[in-house]
Every structure is written in C-alpha cells, then in structure tokens.
Specification:
By secondary structure, the chain is of the alpha/beta class. It is built from nine helices and ten strands.
C-alpha cells in the first residue's frame, strides 16, 4: 500500500509557490497564504488532488491502458525516467516532439527506424559499412534514442498523461486535450489549472518535490490491482509549531532572485551553489531552480 505523509510533503517543499507577482489568478483557490512575498500552497487541497490523481491512474491501468510520464525540464528528467522505468511505463524527458500524440502514425515510423538501427548494430550489418556510414548511422540512432527512447515500445497512444510543469509542456497539454486524453499534472502558482483533468497544486521546480509526485504516480501504476490503494497520514508531531515553522520558511525560487530580499529577517535562502551541492547528493541533475533550507 502506498503511503503519503504530510511531513513528506513539507520536507519536499511541495507547499512553496512562486513570488506573488508571478502568480496566475486562476490558482487562487489552491493558495493558502503569502509569506515573505512567496505564495504558500494549501497542502490540504494538494492531498485531495493526489488522491484523485492516484485513483484515476489506477483506473486507467486496470482498463489495460498505459501512462505517459512527461517532464523535460532539467530538475525532472532523471526522476521521470527512473520512476517510469520502475513501473514499466513510457516517458518523455528530453524534448516533446510536435505531433507525438496527434500524429502518432508518423512517430511510429521513427520508432521503427530506431529499432532497425539497433538491430543493424547487433546483427553485424555495420561490419559491411564504411567508418563514415557507421558514424552517420550512429549519430542518427543517438538522436532518435535521446528523443524517443522512452516511448520505443509504445504501440498506441497512452490512456493518461502525467506532466511536470504545464507551462513548459504546453504542446503536450494541447495535444492531449485534442486527443481527449486525461491529464494529471503538477501545477505551481504560476500555472493555469483550467483544462487539466487532475491538477495537483504543488511545487514543480524543486527536485525533491518532483521526485515525490512522480513516485506517487508510479506507485499508482504498480499497485493498480491493490484494493487498499493510497493511505494519507496528515498528522504531524507538534503539528502547529512545525507547520508554522515550515510555512514561514518560504525560500525564494531561483528564477525569482532578481528582487531584493536583504530586508528579510526570516528564512534567508542558501546560495545557488550550496543548494546545488545539497541536491546533487540525491540526484545528479543540473539545477536551474533550487530551494534553500535552514
């Protein structure tokens, strides 16, 4: 049985939104408060959204369809690939090619080409080619593998999409809507939740938050046949004090660093270098936006 605790959400920084001036007003119902110029996401809403998304994914898997994990930003790439492979589903973590859903018949031709190149390398065909030809085919194979490796075995469009950062993956969202494919997506305070079937309000920039959400969806795939499903533990030891401490520790996102925060007396963020060093201990991913901790 998959277990999600309120403490794990807090420790992963799921509740940290963007600067107030960067918000999307359509996210208002998911915002709990504002601290030090940063929006704080209502984790009660997040927990309910996680439950709905978890059940939706289980239902899709039980019907015999697949899940496509999508996250091409640097913070999400490794988590998307790792969790998708863990649950045996497909993923796109480098670049979303236009028409990957709406023009899937053409994408399938590229997938067949990738498989053919892999077969040529194994069956000895390369031995009869010149070095220049081998280099050209190898380059073509590497490019196809980079963009399509995660969906190489996908024979039909997926039954549901799981997306990190709907702003960055706008083309994927548009194609899924056009194909009437349900969407589960993590929406930050600068995103538009409208049109997303199962929006999960939360931080879509911190590696630990992204990893936590991706693990939950992967667990939903693995435990699709488990009748118990998801268990949420909302209690915290010394809940009031810990909640107050974490909720006021609203660190600035890396993309929001241009404002002057020298007058703030609480929760000064670490430098970018320190944040990157700490995150690298967990996931060796190049970080654009990281969160500092006291």
């Amino acid at each position: 049985m998959a277990v999600v605790t309120m403490k794990s959400l807090l420790e992963s920084g799921v509740h940290f939104g963007h600067q107030v001036k960067r918000w999307d007003p359509r996210m208002k119902k998911y915002i709990f408060a504002e601290r030090n110029g940063i929006h704080i996401i209502d984790l009660q809403k997040t927990i309910q959204a996680i439950k709905d998304a978890y059940d939706a994914v289980r239902k899709v898997i039980s019907s015999g369809k697949t899940v496509l994990f999508v996250g091409t930003k640097k913070q999400a790439q490794q988590a998307i690939q790792k969790e998708a492979e863990r649950c045996g589903m497909f993923y796109v973590n480098n670049r979303w090619l236009g028409g990957m859903l709406t023009n899937f018949s053409t994408i399938k031709k590229s997938l067949l080409r990738l498989k053919k190149l892999e077969k040529m390398e194994i069956d000895g065909t390369f031995e009869n080619l010149t070095k220049k030809e081998i280099a050209a085919l190898g380059k073509e194979r590497a490019k196809l593998q980079k963009n399509l490796g995660g969906i190489k075995e996908m024979k039909d469009p997926p039954g549901i999409l799981f997306i990190i950062d709907t702003r960055m993956e706008g083309i994927a969202v548009a194609e899924a809507k056009r194909m009437n494919i349900p969407i589960v997506a993590v929406v930050d305070t600068n995103c538009n939740p409208e049109g997303i079937d199962y929006p999960i309000p939360g931080n879509d920039d911190a590696i630990r938050a992204i990893t936590l959400f991706t693990q939950i969806i992967a667990n939903a795939v693995i435990e699709a046949d488990n009748e118990v499903g998801l268990k949420i533990i909302e209690n915290l030891e010394s809940e009031d004090e810990e909640m107050e401490e974490v909720m006021t520790d609203a660190s600035i996102k890396e993309e929001d660093r241009e404002i002057d925060i020298s007058t703030y007396t609480e929760a000064q963020p670490e430098t970018k270098e320190e944040a990157e060093t700490e995150e690298d201990d967990h996931l060796p991913v190049d970080i654009d936006k990281a969160y500092g901790e006291e």
